[in-house]
């Protein structure tokens, strides 16, 4: 049995100890797993092995292990964690519970979320304040639908660091091939979500292998133990490089001589002398002082709770926002958002709720449910309401505009809750995506009574001439995933075998056709609309059109599919881990996005992976030529390349065409 | 430029101040439940910081069971005077008149009447709609699931199965008339964090936390201090003077002392780091039955 007192080295000076512990960082992580994955045991093990358990607590657990424990001989460490009486009796954890432990490097907060039917609600709650998610997989069961569900929810709530704990390795004979298979399985799934930072660890919570101590039973695993990883994971810079935001929580006005604006910095840094814009009024002024109890500060940054004074006497009240003038947040009364429904009473579209966001609160309703999400398959499903634990994308209509950033850009400004006005219950958690209701040419009707003319050449005639049926291939994926290079490689191959293809790529397209468009969600969407219309013209002319666009939104891609025609539209999803993409980034766009200077899906803006792509190509593992070959094979498979093609030797290559 | 970062205590401090400010913004009649203990001292410090340079925008409420240590009362009155606090002291006068003591009525009934009932009566009398308290989630298993904003029904009861989801730092303080919210700004602090903060910020605490020679008797394995002549001594029971201190402070007949030589806050922390027993071990009321804290909380105990 491990020692039960927290670790203070013998003979260590208490003042040296205090000085070191004073500088500790705080890391919050979420643990998710199902009833039998051994999650409570894992947490009990972490607490026990880091010597956070006192003797009387351990004695109580030893006593209870005999009556309600699942480990007949020995101590059921899960009992350290399962708090409330009812759940002890039922053997399940019924709510999010918070645990605390610390080592010499960090203080940890564990949000322990249960895996049974209330999973989505509880996981979302736990995840909302965490930087890391630890996802348990039972080594004997492998990747299950619930694993995908946990991964998706963690990703949805903006957690950028995932640690997959493959537990019960003892029951799997500590076998490397079992672990490797699970890891490969998990990677195949997670690559679709563009997870920033992913670690997979084989462990046994029951026996303590690779939790705190390196396992002697798995010498083949040379990676970090769970605790080592949690102690050393770099999470510091995640949110720090943002634009300055301060939601005004209170106006502090003790007497006529002082007027301060109190709040918690929600992003960026501010110093006396900095200009700030007050929103929604839009007036700009200057920060005079950063007031703190022990004297004024030179600067304030997230997540400090401060009081600012301004040089001008403006009308500022609770719910207003102070923001950096050069990079203002959105102001909108129609907002697209993801919602996690948390109440037994379903979402009633049109019903008015209180929308609580930052320090403000407005009345609003769900105007449109764009789609639901199946959390097990990640598929978008039609939805006309949302029930407990369901997730959907909606358009909110608000009585007054709110000041916000996309949740992917700034968690503090993108998060909101819905409150039922009759029961006062918190009924939903929301994550803002973008202002909606912007001009949307997809939906606009043509002006006037217009009719398309019919071609003088029949489709079949063109097909016979060109030896191909027209198709549009959308290569989608994050910046630097290889879209344009692969599109051109496909173009060359097709040309060399006598086909006729052309490439539309995002950059080239913006040089001409879309030179008037910027990079907001609405403008990106319009850019794709123009590309889709162009591709349709190319297809009508018989060409195979290879389009290379980031196209981060599923809805927009689906509209492109509808424009081109489902029967001739193929979606190819190029994936690669973010660190690989950054490595390819000689232009520095990822660095710019990290500094908050560029809008980049997958980093500073959302990227929704395709729900059902025709082909997924991991470009970190498959080379450009091999990718091109796979795409040509796909076209052939789907019958777009006819047998009657002009043989290569007779191709017009270098000839007179 | 490396990203600026806060230490764990700075983050906890910021979170607590955010919560305290949120209470003042959302409620009409908030109150700080002041127990005179170390957690209350930290809470008071954070509340003063939250509204600096202004005064505290709410009163303090102390439920006096009449069995508190004399040092606690002295400390309470001095702090209130020096910091110019609006302090309300409330005692269940019916209980006092009926002669309810831990000895005559047992610790459970005594706590119900002089603490739980007294608190409820005070909240009703002053119509407070939000009470700030210094409870931490690490104190006891049933507290681990407590929300930061914890809604109590019109009978001040807690329903652990019907708690609101609480996400991000968005605290839902909407309640119906008659209901109230208990707010715990120190939810994420541990005992060690509290002591470290007291040390770093040089926060004033009741001297009973520091070791001194005090008269004690040993009962059921606990050291009970003979704070005044009301403590009934059994035949042959004779107080002896030992060097002791208290890890938690409540009613003196129910608070067990520990033998200690720690006369400074770092000394306390040092002893705590090698301690073998958890904090609430020194409180008699938790030992009545297993899960007793959960039962008391459902009934309205803080």
Structural topology:
The complex is a heterodimer of chains A (657) and B (302).
Chain A: H1 14-22, E1 25-32, H2 39-49, H3 55-67, H4 85-90, E2 97-102, E3 106-113, H5 119-127, E4 132-138, H6 145-156, E5 161-167, H7 176-190, E6 197-202, H8 226-232, E7 245-247, E8 250-252, E9 260-264, E10 269-270, E11 275-279, E12 283-291, E13 300-301, E14 305-310, E15 321-323, E16 330-341, E17 353-357, E18 360-373, E19 380-381, E20 391-404, H9 411-414, E21 415-420, E22 426-435, H10 459-466, E23 471-476, H11 483-496, E24 501-505, H12 506-511, H13 521-540, E25 544-548, H14 554-564, E26 569-575, H15 578-584, H16 589-594, E27 615-618, H17 624-637
Helix pairs in contact in A: 5-6, 11-17, 13-14
Chain B: H1 8-26, E1 30-33, H2 38-51, E2 60-63, H3 70-82, E3 87-90, H4 93-97, H5 102-126, E4 130-132, E5 149-152, E6 180-183, H6 191-201, E7 212-219, E8 222-225, E9 240-245, E10 256-259, H7 265-273, H8 292-299
Helix pairs in contact in B: 1-2, 2-6, 6-7
Can you describe this structure?
- The complex is a heterodimer of chains A (657) and B (302).
- Chain A has 657 residues and is an alpha/beta fold.
- Chain A is globular.
- Chain A has four domains: 14-238, Rossmann fold, CATH 3.40.50.300; 245-323, Elongation Factor Tu (Ef-tu), domain 3; 330-435, Translation factors (Elongation Factor Tu (Ef-tu), domain 3), CATH 2.40.30; 459-648, P-loop containing nucleotide triphosphate hydrolases (Rossmann fold, 3-Layer(aba) Sandwich), CATH 3.40.50.300.
- In chain A, the strands form five sheets. Chain A has a seven-stranded antiparallel sheet with strand order 7-15-11-12-14-9-8, with no helix packed on it. Chain A has a six-stranded mixed sheet with strand order 2-3-1-4-5-6, with helices on both faces. Chain A has a six-stranded antiparallel β-barrel with strand order 16-20-18-17-21-22.
- In chain A, α5 (119-127) packs parallel to α6 (145-156) and α13 (521-540) packs parallel to α14.
- By secondary structure, chain B is an alpha/beta fold.
- Chain B has two domains: 8-192 and 292-299, HUPs (Rossmann fold, 3-Layer(aba) Sandwich), CATH 3.40.50.620; 205-285, no CATH class.
- Helix content of chain B is 34%, strand content 15%.
- Chain B has eight helices and ten strands.
- Chain B has helices at residues 8-26, 38-51, 70-82, 93-97, 102-126, 191-201, 265-273, 292-299, and strands at 30-33, 60-63, 87-90, 130-132, 149-152, 180-183, 212-219, 222-225, 240-245, 256-259.
- Chain B has a six-stranded mixed sheet with strand order 3-2-1-4-6-5. Chain B has a four-stranded antiparallel beta barrel with strand order 7-8-10-9.
- The termini of chain B are far apart.
- At the A-B interface, α1, α3, β2, β3 and α5 of A face α1, α2, α6 and α7 of B.
């Amino acid at each position: 049995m491990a020692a039960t007192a927290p670790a203070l080295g013998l003979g260590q000076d208490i003042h040296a100890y205090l000085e070191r512990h004073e500088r500790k960082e705080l890391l919050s992580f979420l643990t998710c797993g199902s009833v039998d994955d051994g999650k409570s045991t894992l947490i009990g093990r972490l607490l026990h092995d880091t010597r956070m358990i006192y003797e009387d607590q351990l004695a109580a657990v030893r006593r209870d292990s005999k009556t309600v424990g699942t480990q007949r001989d020995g101590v059921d460490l899960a009992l350290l964690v399962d708090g409330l009486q009812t759940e002890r009796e039922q053997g399940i954890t019924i709510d999010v519970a918070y645990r605390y432990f610390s080592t010499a490097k960090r203080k940890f907060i564990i949000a322990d979320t249960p895996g049974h039917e209330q999973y989505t609600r509880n996981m979302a709650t736990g995840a909302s304040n965490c930087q890391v998610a630890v996802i348990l997989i039972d080594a004997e069961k492998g990747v299950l639908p619930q694993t995908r569900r946990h991964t998706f929810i963690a990703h949805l709530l903006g957690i950028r660091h995932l640690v997959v704990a493959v537990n019960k390795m003892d029951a799997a004979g500590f076998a490397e091939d079992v672990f490797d298979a699970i890891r490969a399985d998990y990677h195949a799934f997670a690559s679709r979500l563009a997870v920033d930072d992913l670690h997979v660890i084989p462990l046994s919570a029951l026996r303590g292998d690779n939790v705190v101590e390196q396992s002697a039973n798995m010498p083949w695993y040379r990676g970090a133990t769970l605790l080592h990883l949690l102690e050393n994971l770099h999470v510091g810079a995640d949110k720090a490089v943002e634009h300055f935001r301060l939601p005004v929580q209170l106006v502090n006005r003790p007497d006529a001589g002082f007027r301060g604006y109190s709040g918690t910095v929600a992003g960026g840094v501010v110093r006396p002398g900095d200009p700030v814009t007050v929103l929604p009024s839009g007036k700009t002024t200057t920060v005079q002082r950063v007031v703190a109890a022990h004297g004024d500060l030179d600067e304030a940054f997230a997540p400090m709770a401060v009081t600012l004074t301004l040089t001008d006497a403006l009308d500022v009240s609770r719910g207003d926002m102070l923001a950096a003038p050069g990079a203002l947040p959105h102001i909108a009364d129609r907002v697209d958002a993801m919602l996690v429904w948390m109440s037994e009473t379903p979402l009633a579209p049109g019903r008015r709720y209180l929308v609580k966001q930052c320090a403000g609160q407005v009345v609003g309703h769900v105007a449109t449910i764009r789609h639901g999400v199946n959390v097990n398959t990640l598929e978008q499903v039609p939805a006309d309401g949302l029930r407990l634990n369901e997730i959907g994308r909606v358009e909110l209509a608000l009585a007054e505009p709110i000041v916000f950033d996309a949740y992917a850009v700034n968690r503090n400004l993108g998060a909101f809750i819905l409150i039922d006005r009759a029961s006062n219950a918190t009924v939903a958690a929301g994550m803002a995506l973008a202002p909606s209701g912007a001009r949307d040419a997809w939906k606009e009707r043509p002006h006037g009574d217009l009719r398309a003319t019919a071609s003088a050449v029949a489709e079949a005639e063109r097909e016979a001439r060109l030896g191909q049926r027209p198709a549009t291939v959308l290569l989608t994926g994050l910046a630097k995933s290889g879209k344009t290079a692969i599109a051109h490689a496909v173009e060359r191959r097709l040309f060399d075998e006598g086909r006729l293809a052309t490439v539309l790529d995002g950059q080239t397209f913006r040089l001409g056709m879309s030179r008037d468009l910027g990079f907001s969600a609405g403008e990106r969407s319009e850019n794709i609309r123009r590309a889709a219309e162009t591709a349709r013209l190319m297809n009508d002319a018989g060409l195979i059109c290879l389009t290379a666009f980031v196209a981060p939104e599923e809805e927009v891609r689906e509209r492109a599919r509808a424009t081109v025609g489902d029967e001739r539209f193929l979606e190819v999803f190029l994936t690669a881990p973010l660190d690989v993409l950054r490595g390819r980034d000689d232009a520095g766009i990822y660095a710019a996005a990290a500094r908050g200077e560029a809008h980049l899906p997958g980093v500073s803006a959302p990227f929704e992976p395709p729900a059902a792509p025709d082909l997924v190509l991991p470009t970190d593992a498959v080379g450009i030529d091999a990718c091109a070959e796979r795409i040509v094979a796909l076209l052939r498979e789907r019958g777009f390349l006819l047998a009657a093609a002009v043989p290569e030797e007779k191709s017009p290559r270098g000839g007179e065409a | 430029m490396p990203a600026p970062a806060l230490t764990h205590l700075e983050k906890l401090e910021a979170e607590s101040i955010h919560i305290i400010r949120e209470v003042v913004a959302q409620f009409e009649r908030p109150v700080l439940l002041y127990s005179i203990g170390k957690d209350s001292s930290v809470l008071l410090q954070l509340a003063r910081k939250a509204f600096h340079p202004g005064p505290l925008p709410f009163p303090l409420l102390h439920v006096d069971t009449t069995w508190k240590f004399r040092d606690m009362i002295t400390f309470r009155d001095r702090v209130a005077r020096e910091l110019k606090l609006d302090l309300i002291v409330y005692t269940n006068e019916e209980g006092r008149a009926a002669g309810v003591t831990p000895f005559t009525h047992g610790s459970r009934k005594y706590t119900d009447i002089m603490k739980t009932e007294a608190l409820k009566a005070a909240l009703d009398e002053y119509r407070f709609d939000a009470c700030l308290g210094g409870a931490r989630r690490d104190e006891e298993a049933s507290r681990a699931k407590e929300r930061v904003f914890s809604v109590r029904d019109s009978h001040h009861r807690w329903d652990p199965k019907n708690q609101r989801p609480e996400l991000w730092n968005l605290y839902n303080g909407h309640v119906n008339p008659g209901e109230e919210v208990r707010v715990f700004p120190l939810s994420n602090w541990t005992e060690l964090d509290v002591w470290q903060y007291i040390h770093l910020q040089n926060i004033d605490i009741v001297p009973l936390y520091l070791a001194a020679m005090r008269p004690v008797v040993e009962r059921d394995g606990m050291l009970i201090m003979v704070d005044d002549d009301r403590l009934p001594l059994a035949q042959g029971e004779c107080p002896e003077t030992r060097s002791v201190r208290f890890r938690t402070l409540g009613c003196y007949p129910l608070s067990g002392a520990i033998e200690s030589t720690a006369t400074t806050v770092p000394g306390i922390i040092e002893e705590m780091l090698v301690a073998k027993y958890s904090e609430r071990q020194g409180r008699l009321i938790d030992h009545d039955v297993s899960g007793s804290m959960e039962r008391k909380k459902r009934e309205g105990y803080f």
